[in-house]
Write a structure and sequence with these properties.
Helix content: 40-55%
Number of helices: 8
Largest sheet: 2 strands, antiparallel
Oligomer: single chain
Strand content: 5-15%
Number of strands: 2
Order of helices and strands: EEHHHHHHHH
């Protein structure tokens, strides 16, 4: 079996290189460290990565790439896709990076039991998959903004109605005093 040969264009010159680093599936910090190694392997500056990502149809501002590699948090999927494409990784190797990112973010996919187990024992296969809680439902920023504006309007209307006396008794009590009785 032959090893693939990687050829990179560095400053217009074709250079034979080693294979690119492979993505780990352990944790976010190891994944970002592998992305740093991938940048070093590519030999490109942040500005060059930005241009190559644009050529590949992605958006990867150089400042975003620098921030992404300076943190230990897992980057968004579209940033990983743009970064990997800018570094020159294509096809199944690029999919491996995206799959590794998904595995870290969501946990590895549970493997199903082989169908031959059910036939040989005559019982239904038991799948021991970890229980994963569904993510909490979050509201979009637009919904939150609408609710905040509605609450502010209701507060303003109730405050205005209270200040105008709409919720107070308008009846006046007339006290009869000896002086008022003479009138």
């Amino acid at each position: 079996m032959c090893e693939p040969v990687y050829v990179q264009l560095i400053r217009g010159t074709a250079v034979m290189t080693t294979a690119p680093p492979t993505p780990p599936r352990t944790d976010a910090a190891a994944f970002v460290a592998a992305l740093r190694r991938l940048k070093a392997w590519s030999g490109l500056s942040y500005r060059s990565l930005e241009r190559r990502a644009a050529d590949a149809g992605h958006s990867l501002p150089y400042s975003t790439a620098a921030t992404m590699l300076g943190r230990e948090r897992l980057p968004r999927e579209e940033l990983v896709a743009a970064f990997v494409a800018a570094c020159g990784i294509r096809g199944s190797e690029a999919e491996a990076w995206l799959d590794a990112r998904t595995d870290i973010a969501c946990g590895p996919a549970p493997e199903a039991a082989a169908p031959t187990d059910a036939v040989s024992t005559g019982t239904a296969p038991v799948i021991n998959a970890p229980v994963v809680a569904a993510p909490a439902r979050t509201r979009s920023w637009r919904t939150r903004w609408t609710l905040a504006v509605a609450a502010a309007l209701v507060t303003a209307l109730l405050g205005g109605a209270t200040a105008s006396g709409a919720f107070t008794d308008d009846e006046e009590k007339v006290l009869e005093t000896p002086a008022s009785a003479r009138l």
